[in-house]
Amino acid sequence: MDDACAVCAERLEWVAYGACGHREVCSACVTRLRFVLRDQRCCLCMTHCPAVFATKETGDRTKAIGDLSALPAAAGEGKTGDYWYHEATQVWFDDADHYRMVRAMCRISCTVCESSGNKGKKGSKSSKAKHKIKFETIEQLKAHLSNKHCLYMCDLCLDGRKVFICEQKLYTRPQLNQHIKTGDSEVDGSEVERRGFAGHPMCKFCKSPFYGETELDTHLTREHYSCHICQRQHGGQDDYFRNYDDLEVCHIKLA
User: Fold this and answer.
1) Is the domain of 126 the same as that of 167?
2) Labelling 112: which of 60, 82, 178, 252 has CA 20 to 30 A away?
3) Boundaries of each RING-type domain copy (predicted)?
4) Residue 196 burial by CB count (10 A; 0-12/13-18/19+): exposed, middle or buried?
């Protein structure tokens, strides 16, 4: 077994596996898949895994449970017997700290408050109060970030970037505008870290940005017009027009 996660390529410290027994994916990626995408399939063999077990990766000595159905049935959130159960993802843990870390990743919380709380004096009332701030909805979190910290999440990334809420990037207003237009804000990182991201593509007619080219193409197909005859004649080339009148005018000129 390699010592890197088959999905994110990060060092494989914790693994999570289902009935199929594949232990090549880290617990964070498995949890993200199950919580964010609501996908309970194994990343490698696509076997449906109603429950998975997360444990420390120790090579050949990694703890293995051959029959996951032997784990307590209909468990509630928290400790059950020798293990801890995360109900939202149906993941079992054999380590309390790892369970709490994953549970925190799935929570809607302010990373700014939690970060400042962790840096404060241990046990202080202010740090505890900040750390306990919880939000029922993402809209509540966005309002808090704006009012308390003057920070914003990119709504396009929030919808299209399939990561935990705590992994979404936070921007000042100028940084957010730069992120959307050119993708090279300070928050977005270096050119290598951006991996070719150069801002969200924009509809030239509506002047509205979209998460990626796929979303932009869907919008153009649904909201604007193209000539299917030209597409056939020019090998599938897509030339879009704002509306039917513009399409008609263009073809009259070409006639």
Assistant:
1) yes
2) 178
3) 5-45
4) exposed
What total number of domains does the chain contain? Answer: 3
Per-residue pLDDT of the chain (255 residues; tens, 9 = 90+): 468 999 999 999 999 999 898 999 999 999 999 999 999 999 999 999 999 999 999 887 778 777 777 777 666 888 888 899 999 999 999 999 999 999 999 999 999 998 876 655 555 554 455 456 779 999 999 999 999 999 999 999 999 999 999 999 999 999 999 999 999 999 998 888 888 899 999 999 999 999 999 999 999 989 998 877 777 776 656 688 888 887 777 665 555
One-letter amino acid of 184? D
In a domain, 201, yes or no: no
* Token pair in block for residue 250: 């263009």
Kindly give, in sequence order, each residue whose CB lies less than 8 Å from that of residue 161, ignoring residues fewer than 6 positions away: 168, 211
- Specify whether 101 is located in the same domain as 121: no
57 neighbors 49 (Cβ within 8 angstroms):
no
Yes or no: say if 49 and 56 are a contact pair by the CB < 8 Å rule: no
- What domain range is 237 assigned to? 224-254
